[in-house]
Predict the structure.
Amino acid sequence: MKFIKQIWKTIVPLNIRKSRRIRMMIDKINAYEWWQYKKKHMQEYPIIKQPEDIFPVIYNIKKETYEKITLAATYLLAKESHLWGYTPRIDILKLSNAVVSEGSDIVICREGAIYDRMRSPLFSAQILCDIDLIACADDKLSVAEYDKAVDITGECVSLLGVHNAIWAHFLMQYFPKLGFLDRSGLLHQNVQVLIPKYADAQIKELLEAYQDTHPLKFIEVEEKTSYRCESLYYVSPVISMVNHGNYIMPWNIIFPELTKQVLKENLVRPWISKLSNDLPQYEKIYLVRRNTHRTMENWQEAEDYFQGEGFALIEPHKYSLLEKVSIFHHARVIVGSASSAFVNIQWCNADVKLLCFTNMARVMESTIVELALLADARVHMVTGQDSENNWIHTSYRIPLERIKMAYHAMLEESI
């Protein structure tokens, strides 16, 4: 196979190799190769359904609770509404000789496999995306065992999991674990924190700043490598969240109040305090999203309209973390299509005006609303016509006149 790939690179012109159809074909070949590898290296483990009954509970973060879920006011569709969703207990456990790997939530121990995703009431709604997972049954997991393994001596913490390197998921699902470990008194200079090789410079910037006040040692892990930890502080999921699903429910994400508190203490307030007396760059910002999945197809006319209204076009990933905090903290009005750019609204002021365009398939998703609540702000949404039915990542079209009316209704607080 390597010989064939080398011939492919040598003979076939670059423009053909990069064509979308060819790339899709290559992705399928790579996926098939990986699947064959996984089957060849498959190991089966019994599922540990109640790990807190087997391993020492070092710190109980919270008991089982029902948490408040807020759904956004949506123009000519619904007023802001609330319901309550169940969240499991959150613990910090101490495991011996536990195995973790990048891109997977599965933890392998001598006693079996911990897969806390199965404990969530949302489990049946999820598409499982753990890289090493082959099959999941009620009582056992089939997992690929990697050829390469690394032993880590001493005390460890893992920030590895599905989507462990994606900005929005990192902030909500992984970074809060450090805050809870700090609260429990378990973060000290001898603790080693396993992290993926982040491509996102802002995640690196955030962790480097955290390291300034917490003497931790970060260890970047390799892909498709098992890491056997002599002593692992395992933090169970800090929010209830469907990473991937075929449909959206109001409780696809449930943000416990304790997790919100930890984010405010370790993420929101510390970074706002770094701004000192800097002057606002923009009062009104438009968050750019173009030509990708889940895009508003008439994005160009929306951009043109809001530029004419005095909005600055912003692509948050092009700024440093501190610049981004400043932009969102000083903005008075924020408009744009639903995307990870809206994760940054946690640094806004409470009186900010927020208007989010979304497809109808995701109009009940509460992620952006919950993040706005970290700033005590409210989100307004507007939706239109989806391009495809029954697909949560569909693009969509919202008539410009409807957007204008939703915008003015938001300014007047009449949605």
Notes: DSSP finds ten helices and 23 strands in the chain. Residues 16-21 have pLDDT under 50 and may be disordered.
